[in-house]
Amino acid sequence: MTSQSNSDDLSYGWEAIAQDFISSRSSIGLATIENWGKSLEPRQVLLDVGCGFGEPYTQYFIDRGVSVYGIDASKTLVQEYERRFPEAIAKYESAVTSLFFDKKFDAILSVGLIFLLPHSTQISVLRKMAISLQDGGNLLFSAPCQIVSWDDLLTGRKSMSLGREKYINILKEHSLSLVGEYTDEGNNHYYNFQKSIVPEVGH
Question: Which stretches make up the Methyltransferase domain (predicted)?
Fold first, then answer.
């Protein structure tokens, strides 16, 4: 049986290292994500794109009464996610092809995913997130500020950041504005975008 080629692996190498990732995941970034999530109220709906196995922050949202949905392209990570968080709804599918449950979300979160994707794929996934976000909702994702590429330490795959200006311009096209930036204790950078509220047309 031949191994899956890089071009066919929509998990971008994460399925191959899933068990190692599960056993070594730290709490880095937890405080940053919790602080971002404080504005979410019970019964609001969150989508986690590239949810992995849900650590270290999924339980925080569940405890707040938030309805949590997640997708990930690693079957092993999704199975572990479902085992740990039966209250959440998870699907084994790629952000590239996912319909995002065909729903609109109050908030969308994507940690450690965007920079794994090729240039054009980053743009299409970010646009899809923007379209799937409710007016007034927030999108948080992680990527370096600068335009840079590197080899991922865990998967060995090429990663790239399109840079702060490019991300701002991509999302501006879909009425999202940058409202905050954070750097966690592991020097991971996060962008917080908010979708503008379209005023109701008078009767």
Answer: 47-137
> What confidence tens digit (pLDDT) does each residue in 77-98 have?
999 999 999 999 999 999 999 9
pTM of the model: 0.91
Look at residues 74, 57, 136 and name the one whose alpha carbon lies nearest to residue 104: 136
**Arch. (CATH architecture) of 9-195:** 3-Layer(aba) Sandwich (3.40)
C-alpha separations of 170 from 42, 52, 85, 132 in Å: 30, 25, 33, 15
